[in-house]
Amino acid sequence: MLQIKFVKLRDGAHIPQKAHEDDAGFDLYASEDFILKAHAFGCVPTAISIELPIGYEAQVRPRSGLAAKHGVTVLNAPGTIDAGYRGEVKVILINHGNEDFEITAGMRIAQMVISPVVGAEFVEASSLEDSERGEGGFGSSGTK
Q1: Averaged over 40-56, what is the pLDDT?
Q2: Spatial distance between the Cα atoms of 90 and 86, rounded to a whole number of angstroms
Q3: pLDDT at 133
Q4: SS3 of 65, please?
Q5: pLDDT of res. 95
Q6: How far is CA 108 from CA 61, 136, 140, in A?
Q7: What sign has the CA pseudo-torsion 91, 96, 100, 106?
């Protein structure tokens, strides 16, 4: 099992935890009270920093319950935490709702998924092979 070191930066910090053993994401918790104004965004601290092994990243993703019930989601979903980052994990949330949303210290605000990073190299070419899709972009596969 992969081990990830973490540091609590302030009192009241919560260890990222899974709600169920087979869940993909670890819940991230707000470390302080925060009012997220309607139709606005803000950066919510978690009071933890992590040390990911080289070759891994952490993706910060929305919690579906906050999105479905309150219109609150991660603005830059998924947010990426690189292996070399050692600062505080913060979550950029946006409130698409019409009312202010109260975040309290200890509230689950996002989830973090740990993923391997695939190495890749870009190789310049004079042309690309044809494909069934071709150059079809947004909406090219139909609206149904």
Answers
A1: 98
A2: 12
A3: 79
A4: helix
A5: 98
A6: 12, 39, 38
A7: negative
Per-residue CA distances from 55 to 4, 36, 59, 90, 115 (Å): 13, 34, 13, 21, 9
Distance CA 102, CA 104 (A): 6
- Look up tokens 């479905």; give the residue: 68
58: which 2 tokens?
Answer: 């952490």
What confidence score (pLDDT) does residue 82 get? 98
Q: Which of 43, 50, 142 is nearest to 88 (CA)?
A: 50
82-140 tens-digit pLDDT? 999 999 999 999 999 999 999 999 999 999 999 999 999 999 999 999 988 788 777 76
User: Does residue 31 come out as left (phi exceeding 0), alpha (psi in the -120 to 50 range) or beta?
Assistant: alpha
Q: Which of 11, 116, 137, 138 is nearest to 56 (CA)?
A: 116
CATH number given to 24-116: 2.70.40.10
Which among 117, 128, 13, 131 is positioned nearest to 56, based on CA atoms?
A: 117
Point out which residues pair with 27 in neighbouring strands: 17, 111
Tokens 């918790």 sit at which residue?
29
